[in-house]
Design goal:
The protein is about 10% helix and about 15% strand. By secondary structure, the protein is mostly beta strands.
């Protein structure tokens, strides 16, 4: 089971662009004061499902995905942004300290 339906766009702290796709690349996580440029493709649409250990549902997450997330939450590293799936089938990890924070 994957995490389809649990992405950062479903967070209470998600700040989205006024128009979609986000071609101006203004989407951000206000909880971590983090730009979400990383999860956007060149066309402004998001690439895959992104999440982190501190994910908090805004009431929009897919219930089976949320259940799965809670089962593995403690295995996730804090301050790491995860994406499904890498070329090897595993999670892609990005340390938040290496990402733009303005």
């Amino acid at each position: 089971m994957g995490f389809c339906g649990i992405g950062l766009f479903r967070l209470p702290a998600f700040s989205r662009a006024r128009k979609w796709p986000d071609t101006n690349r203004v989407s951000r996580c206000e909880f971590h004061h983090l730009s979400l440029n990383l999860e956007l493709q060149e066309n402004g649409y998001k690439l895959g499902e992104w999440f982190y250990r501190d994910f908090a549902d805004a009431g929009k997450a897919f219930p089976p995905a949320l259940t799965h997330f809670h089962l593995i939450r403690e295995q996730l590293e804090p301050r790491v942004l995860y994406r499904f799936y890498g070329t090897d089938g595993f999670l892609v990890e990005h340390d938040m300290k290496d990402l733009e924070t303005t």
